[in-house]
């Protein structure tokens, strides 16, 4: 039942909007702890507001003063992106060395290295800035809104437009949009785990708390970023943006998003290569000094080796892949809210979904009434069903907006046209909730005694009625076994009753059943097959009766692992449910809280869990899932909670999204495998040759040019095709696999480098310039062509065709690599012309090289360690920072953050971020 704090003489609790004074510092200085200990009337007075909220004009003034209610900016900043390109310590060292070489009398290498660095930084900037712009466009397409009172009327505004003094109305599943002082609550429980780490929801009440209470004990307040677990509330905004508790924590994390598991794996592997490079280049530098080579030349060569062994353009390839993925997903009618959601989508191996609209058409139709008393007419039972709806009788036939699907089907039925609303007066109502699973109304008809009418789940309604004959249960089972959805209707006289409570729902007489049907989707079986091919197990979580859900699955030939009902789940411990949930296919008659609990335990037991839901009762589970998925036609609360929005509620669309996520991962791994194996081989060859030859095998600028040409060709990888077997299951970062791959294919590359050295020295008696030309061409040709072998486990071209873009880019790099040593620039670059027989020998070596690589590849992938698909995935434990940032992404503005709340001390924010809310006290 609703609860509200008593009025205070100084407040405006009569529904009138209080004229507010000009915005002043007092609005920004009222802390949530102070507000919690004041009466709601006093808080409204301090904030210059009233129960009717602010005027639109006043809200605009306050927004200009306080700034947007945002703790992130999603505006792409070209200068920041450019600055990040110089974050690599190797690039900084190269810049310094290039400058030093000018003063040491070697301007040619300095110009070459400077030009190469300019191109490298330019490529990285162009691709990363493009990805940032794509991310900005995504944020601009997705809005998060909340219901607020402006000028005494309910209106829908973007959450970033909230200001102190706004009065908001929030319901089940909503994310609290600011720190608010509660004015009225209705069975309100809030999930504050994002702040406290506590899994149990906290009861809230608008009564003031004692002064000095810790923030975790402020029951009269609700905090930004927390979720309404049950019930609803009205509250006044006290703090926004960085002045909120959640805002301070999020600001302490910084603007950049926490790294995903994949990004963290890339970073760790890059550091591994960097350590290898530092050791290798230090040894090379010392060896060159011992060979009495010039200091600058030795330093440049060593640094070039360090750069060459690391995949420099890996961030650009990843960001290009993600940006391209968002465009492809948009074409497939899948909207992701953040770029990193694509990786989460590809990771998914368990999908929990409602059956309505996914396995069925989602167009629920009323098929008829089944009175339990033959003397009652079908029309009379339908009338009782129409009375027990939450809709306004006078408007329900005109519009179904805001009605649940079953009520909408009732009002759309032909029999509803005979219902005359003027014959009935609604005296009171208890709205539907997911604990009672019924709606109860108290109605009056002229000349008739007042009547209590209840409509809801048959199991719950029958429990409130007297003994029912076996024929009633048989009637019900027949409908359930046919796959029909059934709603029970019961009544009792209510003379003298004026206000309903749950205790009045007793001693009912069953009137009968209302029957509905939602046919299976014609393409549902095909959709399930596609998800099965992707290694995704589908589980159904529904509020329907178990027999109805089982019938729908049986009609679609779904192999069921069993059914659990909400009542059975309630009796199970977390440990028991965790084991049972892995095997169970159908969860029937489950509440929103039970859905969220199932999702949580599935995640803890291993795998990445996606949840597809579109109703208010799905919001809790959407928040708990690794990847929350909703549809464009969903309720605002569900869309707000989701990470991915399907523009069509179709599992085929979702399957396309998963394929795209996995394709992006697969193409990124291609770059890692190709870059590390070929770079490792080439740099090992260069290091060995520099120690054995009397001259450098390749000049520093030539090494960097070779590496830049190769990496440029790799930028086409994000658009490459991916073999079907690579999409069958989620792929995960495996450093051991990459290390094995590098150790095998790197030396094969070095073997042919050494063959080239021998050819140039002993067959062509090459001078240093010719030697460098020959190795430059052989190196760029072999490491570029190996792309076509490494990109697939199949035979290239015959059983796996690369994309036209990758083919053109690779061949273009080879042509340019052959042209440069023969071009007018050869002198500037340090090359000399090559004899024609060299190219004949080169073609022969390339052919032998490709055959050897294919043979090694066949042996490598035949071993059990590289078998596809991988075994059961380990449980992924995401840190709290991931969840904080995921929640914080909704509080994002396209403009530069200028509000006072965003200028909080970073040190203070970080200190707050590491302490649980329950242990903090407002100073």
Structure description:
This protein is an alpha/beta fold and 923 residues long. The protein contains 34 helices and 24 strands. Helix 9 packs across helix 34. The protein is elongated.
The number of helical runs is 34
Radius of gyration: 34 Å
What form results from the Cα inertia axes?
elongated
Structural class: alpha/beta
Q: Which features would summarize this protein structure in a list?
A:
923 residues; alpha/beta; eight-stranded mixed beta sheet; 34 helices
Short note summarizing the structure:
The chain is an alpha/beta fold and 923 residues long. It contains 34 helices and 24 strands.
Topology:
Blueprint: E1 2-4, H1 25-29, H2 32-37, H3 40-46, H4 56-66, E2 72-73, H5 78-84, H6 89-103, H7 107-141, E3 145-150, E4 153-158, E5 167-170, E6 179-191, H8 193-196, E7 202-203, E8 221-222, E9 227-239, H9 245-253, H10 261-290, H11 295-309, H12 314-331, E10 334-336, H13 341-347, E11 350-353, E12 365-371, H14 378-387, H15 393-396, H16 405-412, E13 425-430, E14 438-444, E15 451-456, H17 458-463, H18 470-481, E16 485-493, E17 509-517, H19 524-533, E18 537-541, H20 546-555, E19 563-565, H21 566-570, H22 574-583, E20 586-588, H23 592-604, E21 609-612, H24 619-624, E22 627-631, H25 636-641, E23 644-646, H26 651-692, H27 700-714, H28 735-763, H29 768-790, H30 804-819, H31 826-829, H32 836-862, H33 880-888, E24 892-893, H34 906-913
Parallel strand pairs: 2-24, 11-18, 11-21, 18-20, 19-20, 21-22, 22-23
Antiparallel strand pairs: 1-6, 3-4, 3-5, 5-9, 6-7, 6-8, 6-9, 10-23, 12-17, 13-14, 14-15, 15-16, 16-17
């Amino acid at each position: 039942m609703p609860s509200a704090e008593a009025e205070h003489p100084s407040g405006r609790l009569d529904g009138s909007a209080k004229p507010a004074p000009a915005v002043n510092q007092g609005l920004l200085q009222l802390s949530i702890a102070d507000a919690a200990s004041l009466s709601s009337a006093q808080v409204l007075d301090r904030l210059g507001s009233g129960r009717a909220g602010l005027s639109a004009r006043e809200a605009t003034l306050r927004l200009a003063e306080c700034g947007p209610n945002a703790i992130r900016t999603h505006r792409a900043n070209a200068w920041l992106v450019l600055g990040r390109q110089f974050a690599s310590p190797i690039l900084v060292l190269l810049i310094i060395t290039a400058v030093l070489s000018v003063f040491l009398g070697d301007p040619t290498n300095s110009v070459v290295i400077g030009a190469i660095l300019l191109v490298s930084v330019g490529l990285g900037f162009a691709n990363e800035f493009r990805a940032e712009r794509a991310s900005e466009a995504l944020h601009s397409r997705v809005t998060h809104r909340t219901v607020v009172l402006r000028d005494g009327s309910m209106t829908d505004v973007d959450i970033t437009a909230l200001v102190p003094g706004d009065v908001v109305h929030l319901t089940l599943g909503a994310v609290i949009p600011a720190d608010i002082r509660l004015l009225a609550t209705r069975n309100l429980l809030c999930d504050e785990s994002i702040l406290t780490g506590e899994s149990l929801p906290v009861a809230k009440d608008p009564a003031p708390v004692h002064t000095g209470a810790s923030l975790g004990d402020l029951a009269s307040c609700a905090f930004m970023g927390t979720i309404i677990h049950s019930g609803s509330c009205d509250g006044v905004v006290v703090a926004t943006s960085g002045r909120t508790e959640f805002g301070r924590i999020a600001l302490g994390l910084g603007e950049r998003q926490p790294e995903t598991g994949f990004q963290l794996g890339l970073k760790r592997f890059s550091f591994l290569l960097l350590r290898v490079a530092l050791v290798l280049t230090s040894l090379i530098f010392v060896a060159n000094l011992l060979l009495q080579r010039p200091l600058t030349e030795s330093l440049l060569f060593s640094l070039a080796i360090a750069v060459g062994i690391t995949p420099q353009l890996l961030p650009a390839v990843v960001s290009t892949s993600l940006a391209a993925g968002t465009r492809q997903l948009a074409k497939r009618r899948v909207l992701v809210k953040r770029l990193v959601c694509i990786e989460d989508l590809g990771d998914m191996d368990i999908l929990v979904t409602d059956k309505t609209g996914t396995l069925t058409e989602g167009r629920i139709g009323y098929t008829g009434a089944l009175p339990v008393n033959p003397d009652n007419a079908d029309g009379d039972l339908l009338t009782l069903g129409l009375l027990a709806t939450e809709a306004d009788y006078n408007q329900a036939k005109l519009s179904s907006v805001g009605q649940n699907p079953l009520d909408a089907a009732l009002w759309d039925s032909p029999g509803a046209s005979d219902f005359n609303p003027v014959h009935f007066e609604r005296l009171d109502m208890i709205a539907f909730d997911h604990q009672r699973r019924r709606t109860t109304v108290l109605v009056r008809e002229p000349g008739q005694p007042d009547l209590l009418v209840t409509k809801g789940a048959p199991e719950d309604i029958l429990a409130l009625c007297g003994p029912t004959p076996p024929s009633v249960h048989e009637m019900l089972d027949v409908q359930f076994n046919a796959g029909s959805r059934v709603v029970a209707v019961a009544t009792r006289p209510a003379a003298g009753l004026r206000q309903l409570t749950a205790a009045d729902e007793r001693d009912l007489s069953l009137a009968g059943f209302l029957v509905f049907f939602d046919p299976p989707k014609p393409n549902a079986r095909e959709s399930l097959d596609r998800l099965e091919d992707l290694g995704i197990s589908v589980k159904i979580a529904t509020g329907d009766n178990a027999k109805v859900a089982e019938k729908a699955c049986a009609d679609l030939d779904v192999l069921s692992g069993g059914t659990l009902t909400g009542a059975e789940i309630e009796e199970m411990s977390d440990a028991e449910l965790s084991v049972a949930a892995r095997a169970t296919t159908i969860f029937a008659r489950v509440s929103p809280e039970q859905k969220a609990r199932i999702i949580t335990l599935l995640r803890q037991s291993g795998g990445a869990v996606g949840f597809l839901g579109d109703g208010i009762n799905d919001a809790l589970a959407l928040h708990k899932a690794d990847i929350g998925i909703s549809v464009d036609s969903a309720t605002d609360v569900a869309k707000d909670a989701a990470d991915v929005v399907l523009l069509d509620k179709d599992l085929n669309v979702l399957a396309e999204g998963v394929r795209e996520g996995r394709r992006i991962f697969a193409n990124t791994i291609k770059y890692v495998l190709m870059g590390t194996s070929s770079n490792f081989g080439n740099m090992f060859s260069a290091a060995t040759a520099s120690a054995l030859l009397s001259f450098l095998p390749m000049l520093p600028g030539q090494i960097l040019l070779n590496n830049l040409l190769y990496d440029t060709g790799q930028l086409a990888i994000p658009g490459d095709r991916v073999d079907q077997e690579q999409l069958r299951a989620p792929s995960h970062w495996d450093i051991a696999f990459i290390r094995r791959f590098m150790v095998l294919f790197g030396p094969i590359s070095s073997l042919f480098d050494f063959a080239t050295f021998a050819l140039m020295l002993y067959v062509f008696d090459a001078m240093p310039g010719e030697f460098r030309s020959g190795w430059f061409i052989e190196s760029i040709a072999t490491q570029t062509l190996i792309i076509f072998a490494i990109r697939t486990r199949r035979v290239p071209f015959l059983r796996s065709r690369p994309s036209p873009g990758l083919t053109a880019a690779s061949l273009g790099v080879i042509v340019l690599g052959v042209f440069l040593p023969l071009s007018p620039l050869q002198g500037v670059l340090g090359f000399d012309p090559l004899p024609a027989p060299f190219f004949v020998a080169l073609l022969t070596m390339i052919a032998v090289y490709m055959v050897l690589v294919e043979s090694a590849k066949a042996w490598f992938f035949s071993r059990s360690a590289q078998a596809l698909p991988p075994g059961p995935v380990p449980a992924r434990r995401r840190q709290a920072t991931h969840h904080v940032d995921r929640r914080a992404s909704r509080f994002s503005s396209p403009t530069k953050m200028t509000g006072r709340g965003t200028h909080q001390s970073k040190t203070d924010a970080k200190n707050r971020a590491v302490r649980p809310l329950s242990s903090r006290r407002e100073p």
